[in-house]
Amino acid sequence: MKTIKLNKIILLALGLVVFNACVQDDDFDTPNVDVTDPVITGNIIDIDAVIGNLAQSGEDIITFEDTNNFMEGYVISSDEGGNFFEELVLQDKPENPTAGIVVQVDVNPLFTIYDFGRKVYIKLDGLSVAVDNGVVQIGRREGNNLEKIAASQMSETILRTSEVATIVPLEVSISDFSNDLESLYIRLSDVQFNRDDVLGDNPKTFAAEDTDQFDGERVLESCTSSSSVIFSTSTFSDFKSLLLPANRGSVDGILTRDFFDEFYTIYINSPEDINFDNDVRCDPIELSCGLADTTGTNNLFEDDFESQSTNSLISGNGWTNFIEAGSEGWEAYTQTGTNSSQGISARVGSFNSGDASTVAWLITPEIDLDANTGVTLNFETSNSFSDGSTLEILFSNDWDGTEAGITSATWGIVTDAYVTQDSDFFGDWFESGNVDLSCGSGQIYIAFKYVGSGESDFDGTYELDFVSIDAQ
């Protein structure tokens, strides 16, 4: 859908100007409460059948003509709070839905007529369906583009009924995300916003920071797994200036894709869809001693990976190379060119692996902080467009040294170590800094943990080299 996407980008600025003008006035007309159920004289089909027609066609966009088909669905979006604009999101059932779709409509607001939970029928003849930005949508075809249903055609195309159902959120986990859940009203339980967004002296708003353009994107993380998702809020929403809640709990919203179809994201209709009633956060413990001025001469552990066999998993020298999920582990590699290795380096990545999830650990031998003073950690990292994947530097005082005990051990974050970012040039190597570990105690292990987003055609790779742990 490259043509559709380019057209959308070109029109975005104009659309946002109109959006800004439209959403500022909350004095909407009162909807007509007397609804006469429409008489449907054609064939009633479900949303899944519409999506199936597109998939079976093998085309980027298809148009319904002379079918006499009507698609039924329930409204799960609301533009009352300004977080949705000129679109209706429908799902097939009020409870336990299996399919959702977006209907593009050149009208604002829509909630006064098509309110949350309202059952509607969409007259399909004359409409087209396409995958736009990774999400199945319905509108009117203009060449190879999908345009919005005109205001003059809305009432004869989108037929509302008298039924307003109670929408029951579908409870899912972030790790469950797939195309099958797109455009459904879901609930994420036991989640919280990342501590960097809500704690400290400058907690963030939903979408009113200087760096927010079009959408404010915040990290929503699970308290029961290592999963996270981007939580998006329009910079034109009525609640953009509210501070994010710092507690933890559940979020009800619509799962979709970001504007460039690079990752999953969730949008809410209103801040009331956030129920953070637990004031005990699940933040990891941290080892934060800052950066040391000097590096000791007593080397406790080091590896430049030159003794490793390329294209084989890292082994020996006390390393524990553990694949928690998927098929990819840390392996030795060498490469020349723009994205060159430093001789032989360690690399991990889930790109094109076909794995639904990738979690890989590379853990050092035990380091005794009590028996040594001035302990520091140094390493270098590079990436090949890390994209949706992450690399964390962790530590544990209670790991028993076995692979079976890795996931049950307590792992904290070594906060002061710099790890290359996706925004860094992929051909460069970046030093961690001389990371001070001296404020820790006991026997610890240092882990390099890679987590893919579950989209193996999108996740990139990380490279690691020159790992050194020293003491005075």
TrEMBL record:
InterPro entries: DUF5689. The keyword Signal applies. Pfam families: DUF5689 (PF18942). It comes from the Bacteria. Keywords: Signal. Residues 1-23 form the signal peptide. Residues 63-274 form the DUF5689 domain. The keyword Signal applies. This is DUF5689 domain-containing protein. It comes from Psychroserpens algicola.
